[in-house]
Amino acid sequence: MLSKIFKRASQLAPLQPGRLRRASVTVNGTRLRRFAHGGNAAYRSLEELLGESIPAQRYRSMDPMTLVKDLVPTSGAYRTLDIGCGNAKTRSAFKGLNDDLVWQGIEIAETYNISDIADLPDGVQIYDGVNIPFEEGHFDLCFSGQVFEHVRHPEDLLDEVRRVLKPGRHFVGSLSGGEPYHWHSLFNFTALGWKTVLEDHGFKLRALYSGIDALTLLLHHWSENRKDMGTYFRDPILIDALAQEKVSGAEAIRQENALKLAFAGHLVFDAERI
């Protein structure tokens, strides 16, 4: 039951002079169920426009490192780049996949993720936010986790990602879809928007998934202490509402996955350099 997933949210009533009233509301599962029928022509159009990039399998939500694990070989020379790596948080996860893997990270000087850029984590370089300081075709995989919504010139940076990737290799990551403002964020991307930009800059979008849904993400940002929504997105409201619907057959699964992308808070992608 959704009542077990999401208990209460604070909603401010209309202001009255000298008075602020707070009312509690409960998410109604019947109301959420209407999102699952696929009757909106815009969502049917989105399904057609996204084409083969919509996953054929039913899933709950996707984490970009799950996609990475399917791409990185367990042995042999392999070079990876984390774009907007912060404090090198993905390095151990990548190195755990392949002992021979070389991890590199780049970050801007103005980042809030590194406390002292004069003492950078191993493998991390500072760059200008566009020009990646490596030669053409240097990497086997590029990764970017929730970065492109902060990038001032995202299309220029995509050109650079393509340049430093070997042909046929993958650019994998996540970025904001329907996410409220956070930490100098500049942009949100729709599923179709991100596919369009990738394809305009020399990538083929192999797969596009929803991470956390936009409603849960909005409430997570709204929460004063971030604990009201449970341990980091443990209870995704719209995703779990869809999971309760009876879905059978390939077309119904595609419709559900397209709907998840329409209401995605985070978009998770696997793109191939062509």
What report would you give on this structure?
With 274 residues, this protein is an alpha/beta fold. It contains ten helices and nine strands. The protein has helices spanning 2-5, 29-33, 41-50, 64-71, 91-95, 154-164, 191-200, 214-222, 237-243, 250-262, and strands spanning 9-12, 22-25, 78-83, 101-108, 124-127, 139-145, 165-176, 203-210, 266-273. It has a seven-stranded mixed sheet with strand order 5-4-3-6-7-9-8, sandwiched between helices. Strands 1-2 form a two-stranded antiparallel sheet. Helix 5 links the parallel strand 3 and strand 4. It is globular, with a radius of gyration of 20 Å. It starts with a helix and ends with a strand.
Main attributes of the structure:
single chain; 274 residues; alpha/beta; seven-stranded mixed sheet; two-stranded antiparallel sheet; 10 helices; 9 strands; 30% helix; globular
Widest sheet, order of strands: 5-4-3-6-7-9-8
Label the structural class: alpha/beta
Mind describing the biggest β-sheet? 7 strands, mixed
Listing every helix as H and every strand as E from the N terminus to the C terminus, the arrangement reads: HEEHHHEHEEEHEHEHHHE
Strand composition percent: 15-25%
Distance between the termini: 45 Å
- Radius of gyration from the alpha-carbon trace, in angstroms: 20 Å
Unreliable runs? 1-26
- Give the overall shape: globular
The helicity comes to 25-40%
Mean pLDDT score, rounded?
85
Number of strand segments: 9
Instruction: Figure out the total of helices.
Output: 10
